[in-house]
Specification:
Elements lengths: L6 E3 L9 H5 L5 E4 L2 E4 L9 H5 L5 E3 L12 E6 L13 H10 L4 E2 L2 H19 L7 E2 L4 H10 L13 H17 L6 E7 L2 H8 L11 E4 H11 L15 H5 L5 H5 L5 E5 L1 H12 L8 E5 L15 H15 L4 H10 L23 H17 L13 H10 L8 H19 L16
Parallel strand pairs: 5-6, 5-8, 7-11, 8-9, 10-11
Antiparallel strand pairs: 1-4, 2-3
Helix pairs in contact: 4-6, 5-11, 14-15
Length: 446
Amino acid sequence: MNYFHSVRLLDKECKGCTHCIRTCPTEAIRVRDGKATIISERCIDCGECIRTCPNNAKIAVTEELSELDKFKYKIALPAPSFASQFSRRYTIEKVLAGFLFLGFDRVLEVGFGADLVSQAITDYFNSSGGRMPRPAISSACPAVIRLIQVRFPGLVGNIIPLQSPMEITARYVREATTRELGIPPEEIGVFFIAPCPAKVTVVKQPIGAAHSSVNGVIAIRDMVNHIKTNFDKIPPGMTTLQSASRYGLGWGRREGEIDALKIVNRLAVDGIHQVSRVLEKIENGGFQNIHFLEAQACVCGCVGGVLTAENPFIAKLKLDIVSEASGEGNREQFARAQAAIPQEHYFLPEKIQARPVISLASDVREAMKTFQEIEKIRAELPGIDCGSCGCPTCRAFAEDVVAGHMMRMDCLFDLRERVRCLAGEIFSLAKKLPNVMQNKGGSDEP
C-alpha cells in the first residue's frame, strides 16, 4: 500500500546526525550513506523528527492561501488550539474576523464540533452498557491512532469508532452552506487550520473512511502570521460570532477532552513517548480500571503541535484563559447542529485496521525461523543502542540485517571485534615461518 505523508525529508539539509532516529516512536528512520531515510509504512507523521532535527531537514507539507482560489466559497475551520496563539491584544472575535479579511467567506471553530463530539462520546458510553474494551481510547489524535495501528495492533479494538471534531465540523458546515446558500458541495472549499502534520495526513489519507470532508490543511503558524500582519487592517465592524463553548475550545489542550465528558475513571496522557508507555501497559493488561483514555501525541496537547507558533506551556495557559471566557458558546447553533446531524454521521464508516510493519513470513514455520534468526543476531550485538549503525536500536539493526537491508559489519562494535580477531590471526601468522625457511641447525651461519 502507498502511504501519504505530510512529513518530508530534505536531503540537502540532512547531515546524518542520528538525532531523529533516537526520537522516532515507531523506529521509522534510518541513516544510510550519511543521510536519513524515512520508512513509509512505519511513519505516523507525529512530527517528532521535525521537532528534534537541528538542521531543519524535516518539514511538513501544508497548503498555502493560494489554494482558496480553486473554490467559489471558502470556509475556515480553526483548530481549538488556534485561540492559544495570540496575546490579549488580539481578541478572539477579531482573530476569527481575520479569516474573512484574508479571503474566507465563513469561519467555524472546530471547537464547536468538539462540543458535538463530546456529547456523542457520552451517549456512546451510556448506550454501550459497559461492553466496551477498557480503556476506550479517544479517536481525536490521528498520530496516536496510527501509533496503535503500527506498534500496538492488538489495541485497535479499543479505539472509539467515532469521527473527529474536525470531520464533524467540516461535514456539518459544508451541508449547512449548501442548504442555506444553494452552493453545490464541490464548489465549497473547507480548510482546516492545523497544529500538526498528522492532521494533514489524515485529511489526505483518512483513517476509517474513504475520504475526508476537508479539502485542504493550512498550518496554524502560517495563519497566525497572516492574521498578525493584517490585524490592524481588519475593520472593527467585521466580526463573526464565536460558536465553541469553553469545553469545545478546551479540546486543544491536555485534559480538555476529559473535562468535556461526563465519564467516570478518565485518564489523560500527552507526549508521544509517554503515550507509548501507557499503551504498552494497556497491552500487558494494565489500566483495566480506566474507562476512557485521552491520548495526545504532542506535549500539552494540540497546543504543542509542531505547526503552532507559541510555546506549548504558554499556549496552554492562554487557552485556559480564552476558553474560560467563552462560556457556553452559541447554544442556539449547537441545538440546530444536533438536530441536523444524524447519529450515524458521528460513526466511522469503516473499521480501523491494524497496520503491522514487520511481516516475518506467511508460513508459521518460516516466521519462527526468521524470528529466531533476529533474536540470535540481537543477542550477539552489544545491546547499547548507540545508533552508530544508523538504526535506532540493536534489535532494529538485527531486523534490518535479516531483511537484507544491512550487513553485520555495519555494526561498528561487531566490526571492531572482527578486526581485532583478524589482527590477532595476522600477528600469529607473522610469527610463523614456512618449514623450508626455518633453520634446523639453530644457527644463522651457512
